[in-house]
Write a structure and sequence with these properties.
Low-confidence stretches: 1-14, 152-157, 524-529
Transmembrane segments: 24-42, 49-68, 80-107, 119-141, 178-199, 211-232, 270-288, 309-332, 352-381, 402-433
Number of helices: 23
Membrane topology: Multi-pass membrane protein
Subcellular location: Membrane
Domain SLC26A/SulP transporter: 22-406
Strand order of the largest sheet: 3-4-6-8
Number of strands: 8
Organism: Hymenobacter sedentarius
Mean pLDDT: 82
Strand content: 5-15%
């Protein structure tokens, strides 16, 4: 007789390189998206150009491994530009900001140790989806001027009001009046190529699935601009609308470019106030971003929020020590990672290595990339975040889901990310409280087995002060002369405020000729509470 087969052991854990075939192309796409954002956010923040790239490198090479998220990408965040710009003015120098960034990182580490990351789990799904859709719309609106080659400041900030006095919509109008023919040509060619690359006919080709459309767009845009330069110089993309990367010839040269913190700033109280602001805002943005990334993750993996705070804290400490900006987990680059087929944190790590390599070896080539081509990449990323199908789905879920969703979108568009999410949370919590209040009790009349004409109001297992208003309104609407059974026998906990309201109703019931019977709620206990 054959021997019984031994039970199989646990499946071996896949190697970190098992999905490199998908992570490497995704990392390249994220790099192409991150490069202009790192440069632009530095400019918008009033910081040295190199600072944003340093932050992106630290986020990719270091934070990707410390974080528990498989798909989020960390780097300089547009939502921090105003804070950083103000902080540099308040503290008096960029070096002092670096000191505040180091302290902010230490605060985040302490928050992670204290398990403060749980706050990220209290954001309603409708608000998270609204944030994603709003970021998609902002990406589209903010990239149009660069797509048209009419904005020398590539990425000023993601707020509605910009530093130059323009707003999101007026900037588009100004761009339409001052467009650059070369940038427009390259931009539309790039967008058409991206749309073509995503069609089923192209994606059925095995080789096309292995080559990211963004890479093809970059190469084609460089070639097209060089062709314009040769045959029609007046239509070539102007130099100010090309990537501008500092040329560094060696690793030692890069080390020589690093800026160190102002150590004296650690002794000034104002530095700690700025650091606390950066820590709170960066932590909230990171928690919001990883929560959103988890919802986009095809495998529905969960990111440990406390570990994320620890990872971001260490990243900010290192970034501040070597001349980088404050960082967060960023949804734009993370979305590009997911949409490009990234599977593990290796893709984020590869994007960090590519940012480093671009500084050392590829500056002369990268400086030939038209910004309108990169804007086309971001336009497609933005559309995928705010697809019409998302709005239809939220509408079908009812007002409790749709209203917080749409309010978050509008608020983020016309303010900024944190304020908009805050407004969305207020609306979302209103519906949560409303639903909670409606579930505090069950009211029936003429129920089977009950006396005819009797109102039977049974309280739920847990009744909090949030249910007080709803219960009072229900009791006040009961008709005069009715018989009422108020049953709390199944309730494990009834809040003091609710008990007071029940006692008040018991006292006035005789005046309304209401025959009230309390079950499981002692009048003595109520009065003595």
């Amino acid at each position: 007789m054959a021997a019984a087969a031994e039970p199989a052991g646990p499946a071996p854990k896949p190697s970190v390189f098992s999905s490199i075939g998908q992570d490497a192309p995704a990392g390249l796409v994220v790099f192409l998206v991150a490069l202009p954002l790192c440069l632009g956010i530095s400019l918008a923040s009033g910081a040295p150009l190199l600072a944003g790239l340093i932050t992106g490198i630290v986020g990719g090479v270091l934070v990707s491994w410390l974080s528990g998220s498989q798909l989020s990408v960390s780097g300089p965040a547009a939502g921090l530009t105003v804070i950083v710009l103000t902080a540099i003015s308040t503290l008096g120098s960029f070096q002092a900001l670096l000191a505040a960034t180091v302290i902010a990182g230490a605060i985040q580490v302490l928050m992670g140790v204290a398990k403060a990351g749980v706050i990220g789990m209290y954001f309603p799904a409708a608000v998270i989806r609204g944030m994603l859709a709003a970021i998609g719309l902002i990406l589209i609106l903010k990239q149009i001027p660069h797509f048209l080659g009419a904005d020398t400041d590539y990425f000023e900030d993601m707020d509605f009001m910009q530093f130059n006095g323009q707003n999101t919509f007026s900037a588009i109008g100004a761009a339409a009046r001052a467009l650059s023919p070369g940038s427009v040509l390259v931009g539309f060619a790039s967008l058409a190529l991206l749309l073509l690359w995503d069609t089923r006919a192209v994606q059925r080709q095995a080789w096309a699935r292995k080559v990211p459309g963004a890479l093809v767009v970059v190469l084609v845009s460089i070639g097209l601009n060089q062709l314009l330069r040769a045959v029609a110089p007046e239509y070539q993309v102007r130099p100010e609308h090309l990537v501008k990367l500092p040329v560094i010839s060696s690793l030692s040269g890069l080390l020589g470019q690093l800026t160190l913190p102002d150590w004296s700033a650690f002794a000034r109280p104002v530095t700690y106030g700025v650091a606390l602001t950066i820590a709170i805002v960066a932590s909230l943005e990171s928690l919001l971003s990883v929560e959103a990334v988890d919802k986009l993750d095809p495998h529905k993996r969960r990111t440990p929020p406390n570990r994320e705070l620890l990872a971001q804290g260490v990243g900010n400490m290192v970034s501040g020590l070597i001349g980088g900006l404050p960082m967060t987990a960023v949804i734009v680059r993370s979305s590009a990672n997911i949409n490009s087929g990234g599977q593990t944190k290796l893709s984020s790590f590869i994007h960090g290595l590519l940012l480093l390599a671009s500084l050392l070896f590829l500056a002369s080539v990268l400086n030939m990339i038209p910004l309108s081509a990169l804007a086309a990449v971001l336009l497609t990323v933005g559309f995928k975040l705010t697809r019409p199908a998302l709005y239809r789905t939220q509408w079908k879920l009812g007002w409790g889901q749709f209203l917080p969703f749409i309010v978050t979108i509008v608020a983020v568009l016309f303010t900024d990310l944190l304020k908009g999410v805050g407004v969305g949370l207020v609306v979302g919590f209103f519906f949560i409280l409303k639903a909670n209040a409606e579930q505090a009790y069950f009211l029936t009349r003429d129920a089977p087995g009950r006396e005819p004409g009797t109102f039977y109001l049974r309280l739920s297992e847990h009744v909090s002060f949030l249910n007080k208003a709803s219960i009072i309104n229900t009791l006040e609407r009961l008709p005069r002369g009715s018989r009422v059974i108020l049953d709390g026998s199944k309730s494990m906990d009834i809040d003091h405020d609710v008990l007071e309201a029940i006692e008040s109703f018991r006292q006035v019931a005789p005046e309304r000729h209401i025959d009230l019977e309390l079950r499981g709620i002692s009048p003595v206990a109520v009065a003595g509470h």
